[in-house]
Amino acid sequence: MIAAHALCFVRGRGRGARAVLEGIDLCVGSGEFVVLAGPNGCGKSTLLELLSGAAPPASGALRFDGTRMDRFGPAELARRRAWMGQSGPSDLALTCIERVLLGRRPHGPGGPLDLRLARRTLEELEVAHLAHRPMDRLSGGERQRVELARALVQMAGVERALLLLDEPTASLDPAHADLALAAVRRRVDGGAAACVALHDLSLTAAWADRVALLAGGRLVVDGPPGEVLASGYLSRAYGPGLRVVRDPLTGRPIVVAGGPAEARAPYEPGTTITARPAVSGRGSAAS
Question: What is the pLDDT of residue 185?
Answer without folding.
Answer: 97
